[in-house]
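[recover] target loaded
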């Protein structure tokens, strides 16, 4: 997929796994946005309306999961890390090779399901607000993730108090304002890094005051440093 390519909201009667062998994929639903950097996989259960957007030149591999196997996975959209066995199984299933032995593809798909069942979910979900006051604040930050305003300052623009907004972040999102904004910025940082922007320029573009604080935050959310993520992109056999 070319950089910026998007798919409009749609649903599937079956489950769907989308693996970003290279590039970055964002999957949006009414529950929020999940981002899958390279070597991550997104899971969308049957019946969830969702859209996709691709960042960088993305090698996206799609796997259909029959309804009878979907109960083995989570009941909500999610993102998982991809280990060596899972990666090779997904590539084999999406590589266009004919099925030589009857049932071979189904058996390999059950390996994928088993691997995902034992893989922890990654914290790359950015939930969306239901409360109008909270949505007003998150809309401001979506429009400008690097905006340095405090929650009190954002509240004055949105017409809500800091204490009320802080409570709403915890009650609706299960996280603090700081954590939500960090994940939002990481989502944008992944798109910049995938496009080839330097770590320092990405840090500045996404609102961090210095590269070291950005590296710490990125490592905390993604599980690796921005530099190692870009090196992984460059060294991926699937990279364009």
């Amino acid at each position: 997929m070319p950089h910026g390519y998007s798919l409009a909201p749609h649903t599937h009667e079956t489950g769907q796994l989308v693996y970003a062998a290279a590039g970055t994929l964002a999957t949006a639903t009414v529950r929020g946005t999940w981002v899958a950097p390279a070597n991550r996989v997104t899971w969308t259960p049957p019946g969830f309306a969702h859209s996709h957007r691709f960042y960088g030149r993305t090698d996206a591999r799609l796997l259909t999961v029959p309804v009878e196997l979907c109960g083995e996975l989570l009941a909500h959209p999610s993102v998982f890390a991809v280990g060596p066995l899972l990666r090779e199984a997904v590539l084999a299933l999406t590589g266009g090779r004919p099925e030589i032995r009857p049932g071979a593809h189904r058996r390999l798909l059950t390996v994928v399901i088993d691997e995902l069942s034992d893989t922890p979910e990654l914290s790359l979900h950015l939930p969306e607000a239901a409360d109008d006051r909270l949505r007003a604040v998150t809309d401001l930050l979506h429009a400008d993730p690097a905006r340095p305003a405090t929650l009190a300052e954002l509240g004055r623009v949105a017409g809500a108090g800091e204490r009320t907004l802080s409570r709403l972040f915890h009650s609706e999102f299960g996280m603090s304002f700081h954590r939500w904004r960090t994940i939002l910025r990481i989502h944008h940082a992944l798109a910049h890094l995938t496009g080839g922007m330097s770590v320092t320029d990405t840090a500045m573009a996404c609102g961090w005051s210095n590269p070291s604080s950005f590296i710490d935050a990125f490592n905390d959310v993604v599980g690796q440093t921005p530099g190692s993520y870009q090196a992984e992109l460059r060294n991926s056999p699937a990279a364009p």
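[recover] notes: The first strand starts at residue 6 and ends at 10.
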